[in-house]
Amino acid sequence: MVAVAAGAIFIGSCRPNNEATPPITNTVIVVSTPWWQDAALSLAVDELTAAMTSSGVSTSVVQDKDIAQLPAYALVVGTETDPWVKILLGEKGIPKLKEEGYIIERRSYQGAPAILIAGKDVLGATYGMFHLAERLRLDNNVLTRPLRIRNEPKMTLRLISDPNDPSYPTPEQALRWGFNAVAVEPWPSLALYDGIEPALYDPETHAAERAWVEENRHRARERLAAAKRLHLKVVSSGDVLTFPQQVLDLYPDQVTDGNPNRFSLDKAKTRQLLSYALDEVLQDFPDIDAIMVRSGENYAQAPLEGNTLQEGGCEDEDYVSCLQTMVALVQSQVASHGKVYIQRAWDLGEGGFHANPQIAKEVLTGINSDGSLILSFKQTETDFWRYNEVNPNLRSNGFPKMVEFQAAREYEGKGAFPNYLGEVFARGGEEKQPRGGMDYAYQQGVRAVWVWAKGGGWEGPYPSSDLWVEANLYALSHLAWEPKADPHALAQNWATLRFGPTAAPYVGQMLMTSAEAVRKAFYIEPYARKRGGWVPNNLWIRDDIIFGGDRIKEIYQVCRNEKDFDAALAEKKEAVTLIQGMIQNLRNAQPLITDQALAEQAMNTLLYEKALLETLQGYFEGMFYYYRWQEIGNQDQHLRQQAINRITQGQKAWERYHSKVALLPGVATPFHDGGMGETMARALDELEGN
Question: Angle at CA 398, nearest 5°, toward 397 and 402?
Answer without folding.
Answer: 80
